[in-house]
């Protein structure tokens, strides 16, 4: 009986590996219903090279908003070729004094690559230790999955960065909206955040 469990475990690993290698890709088919793993796969006969090319990151995003920032995603919803591959990308445009407020991606880690100007970025670990750095053109920083993190343009001109994720749909929860952009009663928000209503 002691040998059955390890043999079963090895067989399961080999079987799952062999099944994973049967399909090269799973291009998202937006006309079919989503499944538990995300978008359904397009029929391979209907897949074209254009499913694997995305043209949406060459232009700056609209930064005329309260945070002076724009994130232009190339997630599975915009870029069907990344569906099921465990990767995605985005473009970040930050005006002078622009900020991406504290937020988290519950479904993927993030790598930020600065391509223009200077961005101060950081994250808070689960033990509440803060890791932050001023990053210049060519620098990269990683934000582990699920941890609160931020980016601020600390330079003199608009900043640009490109972001990579370890998920085709990394998700997003912005702390400010989670705390204050909901329909919780003010007294509950006050009690749970130790802030006054003002």
How does this model look, in words?
A hairpin with a 5-residue loop joins strand 5 (119-124) and strand 6 (130-135). The protein starts with a helix and ends in a 5-residue tail after the last helix. The chain has a single domain (55-193), classed as Jelly Rolls, CATH 2.60.120.10. With 198 residues, the protein is an alpha+beta fold. Helix content is 16%, strand content 29%. The strands form 2 sheets. A 5-stranded antiparallel sheet has the order 1-2-9-4-7, with no helix packed on it. Strands 6-5-8-3-10 form a 5-stranded antiparallel sheet. Residues 5-9 and 11-21 have low confidence and may be disordered. The longest helix has 17 residues, at 4-20.
Low-pLDDT residue intervals, each spanning 5 or more residues: 5-9, 11-21
Structural class: alpha+beta
Can you give the mean pLDDT? Answer: 89
Order of strands in the sheet with most strands: 1-2-9-4-7
Largest sheet: 5 strands, antiparallel
Superfamily (CATH H level) name: Jelly Rolls
Looking at CATH, which topology would you report? Jelly Rolls
